[in-house]
Amino acid sequence: AQLHYSVPEDRDPGFSVGDLAKDLGVEVRSLAARNLRLVSEGGQRHFQVDLAAGVLLLDSRLDREALCGQSPTCSLHLQLVMENPLQLHRVEVDVLDVNDNAPQFPKPEVLLEITEVANPGTRLPLEVAEDPDMGSNSISTYELSPSKHFALSINVRGDGVKMPEIVLEKALDREKVPVHHLTLTALDGGNPVKSGTARVTIHVLDANDNPPVCDPPISKVLLEENVPVGTLVTKLNVTDLDEGPNGDVEYSFKTSNNAPGKFTKLFSLDARTGEIRTKAPLDYEESSAYEIAVRARDKGSPAMEGHCHLRVELIDINDNSPEIVLTSVSSPVQEDAAPGTVIALIGVKDSDSGDNGQVRLQIAKELPFKLVSSFKEHFSLVTSGPLDREKASGYNITVRAVDSGSPQRATQKTFYLRIADVNDNAPNFSSPFDTAHVQENSLPGTSVFSVSASDPDEGSNAKLSYSILDNGMQDAPISTYFRIDQDNGTIYTVRALDYEQDKVFQVPVEVKDAGSPALSSTAVVHVFVLDENDNAPNIVYPSVPRGSAFHQAIPALAEPGYLVTKIVAVDADSGHNAWLSYQLQESAEALPFQVERRSGEIRVAQALRESEDSHRLVVEVRDNGTPSLSASVVIVISPEENSVQDFSKSLDLPQPSSEDTNLTLYLIISLVSISLVSCVMFGLVAARC
Predict the structure, then answer these.
(1) Is 103 a domain residue?
(2) Beta-strand pair 213-214/289-298
(3) Which of 545, 547, 563, 566 is nearest to 555 (CA)?
(4) Could you tell me if 567 and 488 lie in one domain?
(5) What's the pLDDT at 654?
């Protein structure tokens, strides 16, 4: 859309210029969400947008004369950019002139000379007063103080400027009045009216009564810009009816407050011949026309002068290349963006005029984009086909601007457009099944294993988080045994594990990316609990209370090798931690008994004496763990006459089978196998890392 507003130049900052929300047809509360922002084409910031009210406000006080000089119109061009969707709106604000400047003459006092033989009707040109205001606020008329001999005449120049002249109405007599003092007043058309005055002093002289006359008094010349320095612009045609010095004319530029001396830097004037030539390069883009005032003055006494007005209009040539302005670029763009999605807003401008300033844009045909004209000198770059980040993660887009001049001028600008990823790939584990080992009774927080997953997406779509799923295989939730670092996938214990309670865990791990919607996959880690020697042997037979002794009677004449009793113990641990050995604790006296190290059988080691009393034995049962744990039992053996005992019947224990005998061997083989597999797995993981 293109909006048009106007604002007087004297308004204070904060003045409301226009209701943007109403004129754009959008709701005020959506402006902030759509990131409405203001872009000034001139580079200076004069306005601001009140997002809360949806109105365009003045940011600084405007000075029309400083902004536009003497241009009849003064407009400021703005651009409004809104996102979601991306839109560009053009705003044109006319700065209205107010009557804030009074007319002012170049000099406060004007000195004129006129011969006393001048005929009624003789005209004396005056300096034009300057008023920076425009339109009705500019100079409206001039007034001259009352005089018997002089009156005021106002002529209108070709460009509309009013030129005051003093006209002689009654013949002069220098002997009666040699000097006339008048007041010239310039009035503007403002309300209230402002004015400026200059004192006019007219000296009445004798002789030279014919001024130089320029033919024509007002002329126009067409000249191409960038002509070589020294090119002849024109030769003034001035005649003076006088003879001798009174007819010898000298030329000079006449300057005023209206860009004082500006054209004198670009043009030179031959004071003798009246030839005007260029003395610096002319640029149509800087100024398309120049108003030159020339004073033709004779050498009479008093000297008389005439005035020539020349308008030099420049013809534009194609000397400026187009300029490309990237107003807004939406980078990155989603790879699933629909055809027609706006990628960038591009503006072009060419300081030349006519066909030289007509610009067209081009981009490479093989790109999946196209240019769409929004309005004059503004284009939208939109998608014309599907995008695929896996094939191309970005594009270097070169925009070429070519004008219609002869010869053509072109320029180009390249920018990079990044293609943003969408979450179309699920994360994958390096292996769906893994094996880990952990020692029982390890402290909570012990690292067990680290799972690893990858995601071919990028950004948040490739940001992975790990979690443990509950499989319901244990009595308690798996999360009460293990936890996982959601960032690096390291599995830690939550509490100490008990091999005797749980020997293996299946830990389902889920990895999920941060995309929307999130994608995930799972893997299972088998965690084997390694046994630790945390259980002391438990003596099953004989079963006696703590602090008591077991009494066993044997025949007094028992032969060496006689089986007295058998100690039976078990260990809740496994493997070498459950290998039990039996031994007698050392005593001060030698005992006639011995204990089988592996079976726990107590036998008579040497023949007993008839008078021998009872013997007290302390049997210690020790496992093979590190550190080793033990238990002991006290047995009191009393030799008795006629004591015969069939120990195999009295000991109510099952006889060990051959399968039980080989259990220890199987445990050793299993432990060694598990250790070897663990070493191989850790080696593979270390090599992969």
Answers:
(1) no
(2) unpaired
(3) 563
(4) no
(5) 43
**pLDDT of residue 487 exceeding 60:** yes
List Cβ neighbours of 233 (8 Å cut-off, separation of 6 or more).
Answer: 221, 223, 267, 276, 277, 278, 310, 312
Instruction: At 453, give phi and psi (nearest 5°).
Output: -135, 160
* Residues 412, 507 contacting (CB under 8 angstroms): no
- Rounded Cα gap, residues 566 and 652, in angstroms: 11
Assigned domain for 418 exists: no
At residue 652 the predicted structure's pLDDT band, cuts being 50, 70 and 90, is very low
Which of 412, 440, 474 is the endpoint of a domain? Answer: 412
Q: What are phi and psi of 680, to 5 degrees?
A: -65, -45
pLDDT exceeds 50 at position 648:
no
Parallel/antiparallel/unpaired status of strands 504-513 and 490-493:
unpaired
CB 639 within 8 A of CB 608: yes
Strand 323-329 vs strand 195-205: parallel, antiparallel, or unpaired?
A: unpaired
CA–CA gap between residue 337 and residue 421 (Å, rounded): 11
Position 461 confidence tier, pLDDT thresholds 50, 70, 90: confident
The residue-averaged pLDDT of 643-656 equals 46
- For CA atoms 660, 665, 666, 668, give the dihedral sign: positive
Residue pair 564/651 in contact (Cβ under 8 Å)? The answer is no
Do 521 and 556 fall within a single domain? no
218 and 310 together in one domain: yes
Query: Which token pair is 99?
Result: 């009557």
Per-residue three-class SS string for 326-351: EEEECCCEECCCCCCCEEEEEEEECC
Residue with token string 């060694």: 672
Q: Give the number of other CB atoms < 10 A from CB of residue 324.
A: 19
Residues 282 and 372 in one domain: no
Element of type H or E holding 31? helix 29-33
Which residues, including other chains, have CB under 8 Å from residue 410's CB and lie 6 or more apart? 321, 322, 400, 401, 402, 403
Final residue of a structural domain among 170, 205, 240: 205
- Structural domain total, the chain: 6
Residue 659: its pLDDT value, please? 47
Task: Assess whether the previous peptide bond of 85 is cis (omega < 30° from 0).
Answer: yes
What does the alpha-carbon distance between residue 25 and residue 416 come to, in Å, rounded to a whole number?
34
Task: Provide the pLDDT for residue 516.
Answer: 83
At residue 449's C-alpha, the angle toward residues 446 and 450, to 5°, is: 120
* Residue 19 domain-assigned (yes or no): yes
Regarding whether 521 and 435 lie in a shared domain, the answer is yes
How far is residue 380's CA from residue 370's CA, in Å, rounded to a whole number?
8
What percent of the chain shows pLDDT beyond 90? 18
CATH number of 92's domain: 2.60.40.60
Q: Are residues 229 and 309 in the same domain?
A: yes
Q: Rounded to whole angstroms, how far apart are CA atoms 419 and 391? A: 10
Please name the helix (run of DSSP H) or strand (run of DSSP E) that holds residue 391, with its range, or none.
none
Say how far apart CA 86 and CA 279 lie, in whole Å: 50
Which residue range(s) make up the domain with 125? 109-205
Q: Which residues, 6 or more positions from 239, have their beta carbon under 8 angstroms from its beta carbon? A: 212, 213, 215
Would residue 652 count as lying in a domain?
no
Question: Is residue 195 pLDDT above 80, yes or no?
Answer: yes
Helix, strand, coil % over all residues of the chain, rounded to 5: 10, 45, 45
Assess contact for 633 and 550: CB atoms under 8 A: yes
User: Based on the domain organization, do 291 and 246 belong to the same domain?
Assistant: yes
- Strand-pair partners of 513: 464
Which tokens hold the place of 56?
């365009």
Among residues 518, 458, 527, which one has the least CA distance to residue 492? 527
Structure tokens at 290: 């120049």
Two tokens, residue 127: 């300096």
Query: What torsion, rounded to 10 degrees, do the Cα atoms 587, 593, 595, 599 define?
Result: -160
